[in-house]
Amino acid sequence: MNGHVMIVDDEQAIRDALRGLFEDEGYRVDCAATGEEAVARFRKQSVDCVLLDIWMPGIDGLETLARLRGMDADVPVIMMSGHATIDTAVKATRQGAFDFVEKPLSSDRLLILVRNAVEKRRLASENRELKQDASPRSRQELIGDSEAIAEVRALIDQVAATDAPVLILGEHGTGKAVAARMLHQRSRRADAPFVAVNTASVPDARMDSELFGHEKGAFPGALHAQRGRFEAANGGTIYFEELTDLSLAAQAKVLRVLSERAIQRLGNPTTIPVDVRVIAASSRQPEASLRDGLLREDFYYRLNVVTIRLPALRERVEDIPLLVEALAREQAEALGGEPVRFSPEAMARMQAYGWPGNVRELRNYVERCHILRSGGEVDVDDMPPLDAGGDGGADVPLADSFHVAREAFERSYLLYHLNRNDWNVSRTAEEIGMERSQLHRKIKHYGLSANRRGRQA
Question: Model pTM?
């Protein structure tokens, strides 16, 4: 798939024609007939590029552009119009439109514009990831005092000093990515890039280009040269998030890079030397992956110089209080308010639960508790269902009456969305579908205020 495009136009014929054009080119396409519908769809799921008509019933294209960029300042928006003035085009550009096209539309020009827009967004996202990886805030640690996690930390310290490939095994949510970053940050490569490859999100047809890069014209749509993840990680570390999501063909090519310490961009026979350390993770047991034909034996044995196995959370329940304390601080930092606390009885119940989703599930649970009880203490009777990821029911605290429970939920809901929008009342009202004046009344009714870096304390 080349990217995700949204087409916003009140004319059905134009929507249908553009949908066909871009689906034929391998794009995922959503359509909206009004600006309001586009905003509602975008709120649920962002896209890589928006084709937006200026003149529509309801909110016009310029207002829609402002609202979309208010939710995602980086989304490229291409404005379309059959009878726009130069002044309108200038205004759209000043508001951040990626480009402006006149109707009747040129299919060739649209395809080129959208390819460029999607590529620009991808590169911007990659640059943000690289900067985040290099920032002090990205330094993470495996939290806990248990013997199991202490052994993992000791092994990481021992292995970090080498350049040996490392295979990290563990169930989903156990912290494999955190362990990989710890290995990088303790190594001699700490000041160089740490590049993560989400193998599940890259289609097989694009994997070679993603890993090794390509030259201009190497394949249809390759409008300019692009370096791959191995080049981006040169001097540093490349991390494969789920080893068995790499196809067998891709595994063979990565194995060759490990052996030859060089890559070739698509469309260029010249080899480019690369110096990278490879860390790979898997939530499956390697023996099962080998047996099921998901993993090449030579690739596995080349990577399996050092194996780090991360324990499941149920195997280190003594670490749960420390983890909860750290996660509560994290949620307070992200959402505002004071860290939520848990009574001894509530903590005991959390330690008795199996946590099939491991630390990831625990983080989500603490976030729910923070939204419902920010700054307060959660007792056994206040706890949301521990299996709320399934059919556990609504995440509301138990109360003496429906009225009290509804008000508790409403207060927490409003506080969450106000914090998400940095206490911008107009933006919050739009997001939750409430009149601005009504939201002001609710804020006054519940005594909500922003006094901690613009957030509720």
Answer: 0.58
